[in-house]
C-alpha cells in the first residue's frame, strides 16, 4: 500500500546558515498534507490496522496526531474517533471533524483521554493508534531520515523537538539504519514540558506533575521508554528553552522562510537561532521542521502576546 505521507523537501537555509556560520539544513515536514510529520507514523499505523481488518480507528490527541489519524481514516475508508482532553483547542477539534473524524472530550489531561480511548478500542472491529509510543509509528517517522540520506546530506548534528518522543525515536531509528550512530542529536523541549530532560537527568522514566508550557503539542508528562533505551546507546543532548524563545523562533522563521510553524516546532528552531552550545563545534546541522497544523497568524500573534513579545 502506498504511504499516506509525501516526500518533503530538504532546504539549505541561507538565513540560518549565515547566522550560525555553518550549513543548516531544514527537513520541511511542515509541508505534509496535514501540516506536520505526524502523518508518517500515524499513517503507517493506521494502514497496518486497516489491513488487519480494523474498521474503526481510535486515537487520543488534542492536536497533530488526532488530525493525522482523521486524515488517514478518511483516505482508508475507516471510521475515526479522536478523544481529546479539555485543553484541546476549538481549532484542533474543527480540523479533526473536517476530515470526518468524531471528537469526544474526556479528561483534563492527555493521560486520562488515553485511558478512555483504549477502552473505546476494545471491540474487535476497532484499533487504538497511539500518538507516539508504538514501533510502527517510529518506523514511519524514520522515513524522514531515509529521505535525507537519499539527497546525499550527512549532517554534523540533528536537532529535533520532543513531546512524547515518537519523532525522536523515529529519527534515531532512521539514523541508526543510515549508519549515523556517531552523529549527535539535540533534543529540544520547552520549560514546563521537559519530560525527556527530567528522565535523562534522573536516569529513569520521570512523569511530570503537570504541563505548564504553552507548547501543548509538547505536552506529554512522560516520554516513551524507548527514548531512554536510545539514550543508553548513543549521544542525545537535551536542550531546554523558554516559551518566549520558542515563539520568537517561530516569528523569525516566518520572516526568514515564509512558513508558519507551531511553537513546539519553534523549540527545535530556537536551538539554532539562539546558538545552542551542543551545536558550537559541528560544521553542519539538520533541523527537523516538524511543523504543526495548530498554527495561524492569529494564534501566532496570541502566543506572542502571551510570552511578552
Topology diagram in text:
Blueprint: E1 10-12, H1 14-20, E2 23-28, H2 38-51, E3 56-60, H3 64-76, E4 79-84, H4 90-98, E5 102-105, H5 110-120, E6 126-128, H6 135-141, H7 143-151, E7 157-161, H8 166-177, E8 185-190, H9 195-202, H10 225-231, E9 236-241, H11 243-257, H12 263-273, E10 284-289, H13 297-306
Parallel strand pairs: 2-10, 3-4, 3-6, 4-5, 7-8, 7-10, 8-9
Antiparallel strand pairs: 1-2
Fill in the keyword field for this structure.
four-stranded parallel β-sheet, globular, six-stranded mixed β-sheet, Rossmann fold, 10 strands, 309 residues, 13 helices, alpha/beta
Describe the fold and architecture.
It is built from 13 helices and ten strands. It is of the alpha/beta class. The protein has two domains: 10-37 and 136-306, Rossmann fold (3-Layer(aba) Sandwich), CATH 3.40.50; 38-132, Rossmann fold (3-Layer(aba) Sandwich), CATH 3.40.50. The chain has a six-stranded mixed sheet, sandwiched between helices. Helix 2 (38-51) crosses helix 3.
CATH topology of the largest domain: Rossmann fold
* Biggest sheet architecture: 6 strands, mixed
Give the radius of gyration. Answer: 18 Å
How are strands sequenced across the largest beta sheet? 1-2-10-7-8-9
Stretches where pLDDT falls below 50 for ≥5 residues? Answer: none
Helix percent band: 40-55%
- Strand percentage lies at 15-25%
For the termini, the CA-CA separation is 46 Å
What is the structural class? alpha/beta
Number of E strands? 10
Average pLDDT rating: 94
The CATH first-level class of the largest domain comes to Alpha Beta
Secondary-structure element string: EHEHEHEHEHEHHEHEHHEHHEH
CATH architecture of the largest domain: 3-Layer(aba) Sandwich
Number of domains in the coordinates? 2
This entry's quaternary arrangement is single chain
Amino acid at each position: 500500500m502506498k504511504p499516506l505521507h509525501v516526500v518533503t523537501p530538504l532546504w539549505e537555509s541561507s538565513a540560518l546558515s549565515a547566522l550560525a556560520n555553518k550549513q543548516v539544513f531544514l527537513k520541511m515536514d511542515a509541508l505534509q498534507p496535514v501540516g506536520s510529520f505526524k502523518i508518517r507514523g500515524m499513517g503507517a499505523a493506521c494502514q497496518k490496522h486497516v489491513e488487519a481488518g480494523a474498521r474503526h480507528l481510535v486515537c487520543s490527541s488534542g492536536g497533530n496526531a488526532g488530525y493525522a489519524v482523521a486524515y488517514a481514516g478518511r483516505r482508508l475508508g475507516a471510521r475515526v474517533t479522536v478523544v481529546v482532553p479539555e485543553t484541546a483547542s476549538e481549532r484542533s477539534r474543527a480540523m479533526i471533524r473536517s476530515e470526518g473524524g468524531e471528537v469526544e472530550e474526556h479528561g483534563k489531561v492527555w493521560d486520562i483521554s488515553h485511558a478512555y480511548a483504549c477502552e473505546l478500542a476494545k471491540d474487535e472491529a476497532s484499533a487504538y493508534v497511539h500518538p507516539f509510543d508504538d514501533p510502527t509509528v517510529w518506523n514511519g517517522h524514520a522515513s524522514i531520515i531515509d529521505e535525507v540520506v537519499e539527497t546525499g546530506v550527512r549532517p554534523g548534528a540533528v536537532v529535533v523537538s520532543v513531546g512524547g518522543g515518537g519523532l525522536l525515536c523515529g529519527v534515531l531509528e532512521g539514523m541508526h539504519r543510515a549508519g549515523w550512530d556517531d552523529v549527535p542529536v539535540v533534543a529540544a523541549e520547552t520549560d514546563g514540558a521537559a519530560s525527556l530532560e527530567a528522565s535523562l537527568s534522573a536516569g529513569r522514566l520521570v512523569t511530570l506533575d503537570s504541563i505548564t508550557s504553552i507548547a501543548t503539542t509538547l505536552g506529554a508528562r512522560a516520554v516513551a521508554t524507548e527514548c531512554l533505551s536510545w539514550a543508553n546507546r548513543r549521544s542525545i543532548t537535551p536542550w531546554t528553552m523558554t516559551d518566549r524563545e520558542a515563539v520568537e523562533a517561530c516569528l523569525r522563521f516566518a520572516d526568514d522562510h515564509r512558513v508558519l510553524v507551531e511553537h513546539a516546532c519553534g523549540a527545535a528552531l530556537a536551538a539554532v537561532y539562539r546558538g545552542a552550545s551542543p551545536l558550537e563545534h559541528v560544521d553542519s546541522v539538520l533541523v527537523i521542521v516538524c511543523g504543526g497544523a495548530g498554527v495561524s497568524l492569529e494564534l501566532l500573534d496570541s502566543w506572542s502576546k502571551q510570552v511578552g513579545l
